[in-house]
Amino acid sequence: MKLIQSYLSTAAQSWRTQTLALRIMRLWLGVTWIYAGWNKATDAGFLTAGSPTFIGTQLSAYSTQSPVGFAFNKLIEHAVLVGGFVMVSEFAIGLATLLWVAPRLSAFAGFSMSVGLWLASSFHSSPYFLASDTAYAILWLSYFLLINGKRKGFEMSLERRGVLRVGLTGVLAVAFAGVGKFFANAVPSTTNSAASGSAKIIKLAALKVGDTANFVSKNGSPAVLFRTKKGVFAYSAICTHQGCTVSYSPAAKLLQCPCHGAQYDPLNSARVVNGPTQTPLAKIKVAVSGLWVIEA
Ligand code: FES
Q1: CB of 59 closer than 6 angstroms to any ligand 1 atom
Q2: 114 burial type by CB count under 10 A (0-12 exposed, 13-18 middle, 19+ buried)
Q3: Which atom from ligand 1 is nearest to the alpha carbon of 275?
Q4: Is the beta carbon of 262 within 6 A of some atom in ligand 1?
Q5: Which one of 3.40.1190.20, 2.40.50.140, 2.102.10.10, 3.40.640.10 gives the CATH number of domain 194-295?
């Protein structure tokens, strides 16, 4: 009981005594991070493989566009764990920021998460100022430097009460995630949510016979397009073992998965020729329409 009283009174005192500028930053960052966690917690598809908003599908897309895509590719096989960790971390960082628990650590965690999101999804945004991740990274960094003052490095109190406050915030973060899951909507069906109609992939003239092209399919997942003498065809680039992103090796003439070595033969319906799965890659319907190759 005493712990909860001190927990709440420290938070209340921080709101009473800090400058207006600092309180505005805390309020915005804390609320935004809790909202981000809530968004994920109430999205029933976020941790459900096959859903369009599944974290694994997002990691797949990051692995093809990020400058550190190889790292995201490694995370895909642990997608549910990664998604759960990100969701609870967002709640924990937001709550800690609002309640003034381990403030420097939570500010640094918020900064690191924003940099990670920038590398993952908005690195190529142009012009750069349209990407909010960079703005959040700078805001978290400024907030961190402001509260860190003249200290060098971190000062994380390890006295018993400090540890208990951090633990209590962790419990609250998990509880928020649980409540969010309770309010989650039903998982949307992939078929219904996929964009309808056709989508242009590449100009036919830009894809010579024997060429391949990576593209993002209408459901947001990475895919590989082939052109042979027989025509054009495409497969999902999501490995059927644990969801890493496969890529085409011209030397081996196979689609290869970097995670556990699955290999698929694109000239033979993407059948597995090696590796821990028996399931071929999913086929994606493509066609030539006028000057373009389109996803049907
Ligand atoms: S994810 Fe295991 S082989 Fe591709």
Answers
A1: no
A2: buried
A3: 3
A4: yes
A5: 2.102.10.10
Q: Which residue has the tokens 């924003």?
A: 114
Mean pLDDT over the full length of the chain: 86
Domain ranges for the chain: 2-182, 194-295
With a CB cutoff of 8 Å and minimum separation 6, the contacts of 247 are: 214, 224, 237, 255, 256, 258
C-alpha span between 13 and 99 (Å, rounded): 10
31: tokens are 């609320």
Q: What is the pLDDT of residue 160?
A: 67
Please choose from 63, 238, 277 the residue to mutate so as to test ligand 1's pocket, defined by most ligand atoms within 8 A of CB.
277
Place of tokens 């703005």: 135
pLDDT of residue 190: 45
User: What Rg, from alpha-carbon coordinates, does the chain have?
Assistant: 23
Q: Is 260 in the pocket of ligand 1 (CB under 6 A)?
A: yes
Q: Which atom of ligand 1 is nearest to the CA of 244?
A: 1
pTM of the model: 0.71
